[in-house]
């Protein structure tokens, strides 16, 4: 017998009838939500991989558009923000890169690691944009993080660029201490290798040059002596000190004082040869001047000849000729004559195929067609000029003079003491 429902209230009857409808609507809504989620999941990876494909094809503008689409579809994904910010920086759009990384830093859901990463990325944005004050503040916030060493190296480069040698020295010492203690030796992929002592010596030499420019000779000498103590093997402090000693002697009218100053310079440069024989081509010319000023030509000549026999170079060759060094195996009575002194060039050519040496030897020889000498000599000199330059081992920048810091890549001690022809 079917029970009657007429006794139930009307609202309850309606509710029982609506249950199946509500269930059906809920099921339909869930199906639509899952479909929407699957659609978004398909769309996000598609935009992401499309951006990667553009990157591989070096199409940065299209890659940025694809990553913007991916970020809009999934604004909570930090990796997409990092990728987008780095792309803006690489393209030179530093303002937008800063905005992206500042947005990441303002988020409260970032982990500590991602927050530090965003802080480092923001510092790089400021560095690339040339906003050094903002970069300094951003880099200081990375102290005590895995990015500490990278941040200190970036700050070091900033202070070098600004020629703030005292601040640069403080940071270099902190890097040296961290390396010695084993802390910060590896941070965010940066491995410190070697000591910063040679660079600290360069900073002291730069400060000495500034004091010398302001006529503080005593202060400059004190800094150069500190530089020698800091990096005993570095040639620059002794070369700069010898130059200062020669200048002090030349400023005096007393011949005895001048000879004593030249003798001091000679002693300083001889110590430089002992500490750094590889720098002999740079030391030879000032050593010859000092030796000629104090009458020590014979001892210096013997020293330079021994170095030349071990490692021939154009600068040592010129120094020996300037000292009127007799050519080995030359006739005893004619050893100091110009034609025999030019025999050094022939002797050099037997060991080194040098166009510069050949040009200088030919300048004193008689040609069959002597009237054509100027044309031949000019052609040889022009061809030899590029070979007499110095070349940076880090970036290949060439210069007529030797630099302790490359003007191109800012690397220290990247210029060999030898010229391009001898490399």
Overview features:
single chain, 423 residues, mainly alpha, Serine Threonine Protein Phosphatase 5, Tetratricopeptide repeat, two-stranded antiparallel ribbon, two-stranded antiparallel sheet, 4 strands, elongated
Q: How would you portray this structure in words?
A:
This protein has about 425 residues and is an all-alpha fold. Among the domains are: about 40-145, Alpha Horseshoe (Serine Threonine Protein Phosphatase 5, Tetratricopeptide repeat); about 325-385, no CATH class; about 390-423. It contains 19 helices and 4 strands. The protein has helices at about 10-55, 60-75, 80-90, 95-105, 110-130, 130-140, 150-160, 165-180, 195-215, 215-230, 235-250, 255-275, 280-295, 295-310, 315-320, 340, 345-350, 355-360, 375-385, and strands spanning about 185, 190, 390, 400. A two-stranded antiparallel ribbon has the order 1-2. It has a two-stranded antiparallel ribbon with strand order 3-4. Mean pLDDT is about 80; it is low at about 25-45, about 185-190 and about 330-335. This is Tetratricopeptide repeat protein.
SSE blueprint:
Elements: H1 10-56, H2 60-73, H3 78-91, H4 94-106, H5 112-129, H6 132-140, H7 148-161, H8 165-181, E1 186-187, E2 190-191, H9 197-213, H10 217-230, H11 235-250, H12 255-275, H13 280-294, H14 297-310, H15 314-322, H16 338-341, H17 343-351, H18 355-362, H19 373-384, E3 390-391, E4 398-399
Antiparallel strand pairs: 1-2, 3-4
Helix pairs in contact: 1-2, 2-3, 3-4, 3-5, 4-5, 5-6, 6-7, 7-8, 8-9, 9-10, 10-11, 11-12, 12-13, 13-14, 13-15, 14-15, 17-18, 18-19
């Amino acid at each position: 017998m079917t029970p009657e429902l007429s006794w139930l209230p009307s609202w309850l009857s309606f509710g029982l009838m609506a249950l199946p409808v509500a269930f059906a609507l809920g099921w339909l809504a869930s199906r639509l939500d899952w479909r929407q989620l699957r659609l978004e999941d398909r769309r996000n990876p598609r935009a992401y991989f499309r951006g990667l494909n553009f990157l591989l094809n070096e199409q940065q503008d299209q890659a940025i558009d694809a990553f913007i689409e991916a970020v809009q579809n999934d604004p909570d994904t930090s990796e997409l923000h990092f990728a987008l910010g780095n792309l803006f920086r690489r393209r030179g759009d530093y303002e937008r890169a800063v905005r992206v990384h500042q947005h990441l830093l303002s988020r409260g859901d970032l982990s500590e690691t991602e927050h530090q990463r965003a802080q480092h990325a923001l510092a790089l944005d400021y560095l690339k944009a040339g906003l050094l004050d903002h970069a300094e503040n951003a880099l200081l916030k990375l102290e005590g993080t895995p990015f500490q060493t990278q941040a200190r190296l970036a700050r070091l480069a900033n202070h070098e660029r600004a020629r703030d040698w005292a601040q640069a020295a403080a940071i270099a010492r902190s890097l040296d201490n961290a390396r010695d203690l084993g802390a910060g030796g590896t941070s965010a992929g940066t491995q410190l290798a070697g000591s910063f002592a040679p660079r600290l010596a360069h900073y002291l030499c730069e400060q000495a040059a500034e004091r010398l420019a302001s006529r503080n000779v005593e202060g400059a000498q004190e800094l150069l002596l500190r530089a020698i103590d800091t990096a005993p093997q570095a040639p620059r402090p002794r070369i700069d000190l010898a130059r200062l000693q020669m200048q002090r002697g030349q400023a005096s009218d007393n011949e005895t004082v001048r000879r004593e100053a030249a003798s001091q310079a000679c002693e300083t440069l001889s110590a430089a040869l002992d500490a750094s024989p590889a720098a002999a081509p740079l030391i030879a010319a000032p050593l010859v001047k000092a030796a000629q000023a104090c009458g020590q030509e014979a001892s210096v000549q013997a020293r330079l000849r021994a170095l030349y026999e071990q490692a021939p170079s154009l600068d040592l060759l010129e120094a020996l000729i300037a000292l009127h060094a007799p050519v080995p195996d030359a006739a005893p009575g004619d050893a100091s004559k110009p034609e025999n002194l030019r025999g050094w060039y022939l002797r050099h050519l037997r060991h080194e195929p040098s166009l510069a040496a050949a040009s200088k030897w030919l300048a004193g020889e008689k040609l069959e067609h002597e009237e054509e000498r100027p044309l031949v000599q000019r052609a040889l000199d022009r061809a030899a000029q590029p070979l007499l330059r110095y070349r940076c081992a880090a970036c290949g920048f060439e210069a007529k003079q030797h630099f302790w810091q490359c003007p191109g890549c800012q690397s220290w001690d990247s210029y060999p003491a030898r010229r391009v022809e001898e490399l």
